[in-house]
Each structure stands twice: as structure tokens, then as C-alpha cells.
Specification:
Length: about 375
Amino acid sequence: MPPLRLYLTAMKPTDSVTHGFLPAARALGCEVTILTDRPEQHPDAVRCDVRDPRALIDAIEHLGRPDAVFTNSDHLQTETALAASYFGLPGKDWRACLAAKNKYLMRRRLAEAGVEHVRSVRLPPRGPPPGPPAPRPLPYPLVVKPREGVASEDVLLVEDGLDKAVAQVRERRPGEAVVVEEYLQGPLRTLETLGDGARVEVLGGFRTTLGPPPHFVEERLDWDPAPPDPHLPAALRALGVGFGACHTEYVDTPAGPRVVEVNYRVIGDHCDFLLADLLDLPLFELVLRVHLGEPLPALTRPGGYGTAVSVVADRSGVITAAPGPAELADGEVRLWHRPLRGVGETVELTHTNRDYLGVIRAVGPSRERVERAVTAFRAAQPWVIS
């Protein structure tokens, strides 16, 4: 029997793909072809304009009929879904991918379905100076964000001076639309799901700790597997989300949960590996299996606790000391450290996850034991910026 042919679309390399999905594909016996606009950054990749579904379909047809077309990239979900649909393969609804990625469309879809109403205004891309003014009807505090941004880049909490904040985002994002919406008060949480098109399995979620405002840098995520409010599955259904992995961020407001954004892929920043550790499941294989047409099996949920702590630079400068990769056991706690930068590199603060120096993830029987192990590791292995 010939191997299954999996086409994986990608832009820049990520640990999720390199250390997660590619080994999982090999374990499933797949023959993998990476299609990318950056072939020099991927081994044995094929150059393709992956942002153009017509080019993507043409390249796949030329290379050989697929058994699955898959991406974990925020930027390529719609194009990849269109390609999978063209070849008659299991995949996401491209309309759901588009609505999830486009934060203004997401708000419109949820409001039209009567699921939730969050006041939101779309501003067009910057035209000739000074550009259209910011809207006035929404009261402070407000959040300004790129319509299709990722990783909290150029997302600002605005207490006053909306025109200035919008101008700042437009300056950094020329040609992109901007969304201004009401600030949602309350703790930030996540919902992690996996669907096969027939049913959606809730894997769990995390409580998110953010850095100081006006920016929204995620500093740590702590496991919180409590069942979600029924509002959240209803919101995902309204968006058409129900196939493959999905990482949803929401705020527990006094009026109930309100969606912040829907990332129609597996959770990132090494929390995907943490999720696999916590659930004791081959998570990356399960995601690929549904794209290969297999139904989801029944999933178990073992107990335990886990956290992913991002070591965030607190100043610009040169890294003069840094811990290397680590995997160790501290009693019943397992801990991993993944450095993202190295000694000698220059750090320029961006107030996004690009300021991460490394990620520590740990799992164990209780929060107290996990916290002790993380604290001990950070004390013994500090990052130093001079």
C-alpha cells in the first residue's frame, strides 16, 4: 500500500510543526511535502505562493494527488481549507477560517447569530495623511488591534487619546484595517477543542496571565480543565468551527464569557506540547488523523496540573547569560525549558511574544509542586540582559 500523501502549508518554521506535526506525520506513515513561500527555511520544501489558493491547488495537482492538505499557520487557514475542499478532502469550512481570522467578521457573525454582542468598529486601512479619524461612539476604555493580527502584536488598551493609538497601529500596519472595540473586563481564559466534523471534543483550557497594560503580552498559562460555559461551544458553532484543532481565547466578564479571538489551529507557544503532556495523548497525531478522514476516538482526561511560563525580556539590551535546553524531573514534576534566544543576541522590546527569551513548561500532581519546580529552575538558571 503506498504511503499517505500529506501536503503541509507553512510560512516561517515553528516548533509546533518541526517538533510536533512533522514527527507525528512520520509516525503515521505519511509522505510529507511542505509547501511554502520560504523554502530556504524548511528542509526539502517546495516553493509555492501559499497565500494564493489557486497557486496552492495548481502546485498540489502537479506534485501528485493528496490524501490530506493541512496547515497550522494562522495566516494560511483559509487558503489551505479551499485547497482541501477542491480535492474533496476532509477539512475546515473556508468561511469559518475567514471569520475566525478576521476579527471584525467574527464580531459580526456572533452578533448576527444572537450569541453575543461586543461593540466593535472597523476602520479602513490608512489612506492619504492623516487618514480617516477614529470613531467616537464607543466609550473608553477601548482596545485597538489589527483586524487580522496575531500574537498580540500592535494591540493596545486605550484609556484616552484614541486617534493617537489608531495612528500608531496604522503606522506599523500600513495597508491593514484596524478594529476598535470595547474592552472586556475580567480574567482571560482559553478553550482548547478538537473536532472531526461530526463532534467536537473539549480538551480543556488555561488561565492566562498577562503583562502590564497597555499591552497584552501573555506571560503564563495555567491548566484549568473545568467544563466550559455553554456559551462558548455555541459561539464556535455560530462561526462554523468544528473541524480540527481550535484555540479560543475569551474573557469571563460579569455578564458571562465573551470571545476575544478564535485561532483555528492548535494552541501555540509550547502550550501544545504542554497539552499533550497533560492529557497523555498523541495530540499532533490526533489532529492529523482527522484531516486524514479518521473519526475522533474517545479521549480520557487524567488528573494533574501544568503550566507554561514565558520568560519575557524586561528591557532592551544584549543577552549575557542564558540557560540552555533542559528536560528534568523534580520528584513527580517533569519540567522542560526551551530557549528561544541565545547569549550574544540583542533584544529590542516589542511588547509582543517576540520578547520571549524562553519557555518553561512543567506538569505534576499539583499546582504547589509544579510552582516550586518552576521557581527553583528560574532561580538556578537566570536570563541576564545587560
